[in-house]
Amino acid sequence: MSTSTAIRLSILIVSAVISAALSPLQSGDTTSTSLQRVTATEKGKLTNPLTITPQIIAEGQSLYQAKTCGACHGSNGGGIHCPSLINSEWIYDGDDDTLFRLIALGSSGLETAGYKRSDKEKHAGPMPGFAEAIPNEGDIWKIIAYIRSLEPK
């Protein structure tokens, strides 16, 4: 290997290490808090970094129950006091970015961030934010994976 090639390779390695150290909120990293992820990511750019497996869905279901999502949305997602998660109607939008922010920030936080409510689903009160109750962003992504597993095909 020539000296110039070795120098270029060293520079690339050092750059990659510095970039990784300065950017802890990289794609695929689910160790950030949900609020860190929301703050660090441009509107519309959040996507679930997890590979969806039956184990991830099972963990999401367990978290859904443990974090009391089922108390309002029903144990099977069919809705009780709040909207159903198993129909195709979403109050805001059903994309990853909107769902993540809705769970973390709640409906008032989502609207403050510029997301608009649709008039498709009429049965909906305000949703509280769960960033404190579900601080690990990976847990929110698992819940979203579980919710997606409930959607009609």
Description:
The protein contains six helices and no strands. Helices cover 50% and strands 0% of the residues. The chain is globular. With 153 residues, it is mainly alpha-helical. The protein has a single domain, classed as Cytochrome Bc1 Complex, Chain D, domain 2, CATH 1.10.760.10.
Shape: globular
Average pLDDT rating: 81
Provide the CATH topology: Cytochrome Bc1 Complex, Chain D, domain 2
Residue runs with pLDDT of under 50 for 5 or more positions? 8-28
User: What share of the residues lie within helices?
Assistant: 40-55%
What descriptive keywords fit this protein?
153 residues; mainly alpha; Cytochrome Bc1 Complex, Chain D, domain 2; 0% strand; globular
Gist of the model:
The protein is an all-alpha fold and 153 residues long. The protein is 50% helix and 0% strand.
List the SSEs and their pairings:
Layout: H1 3-22, H2 34-40, H3 54-66, H4 69-73, H5 96-112, H6 137-150
Helix pairs in contact: 3-6
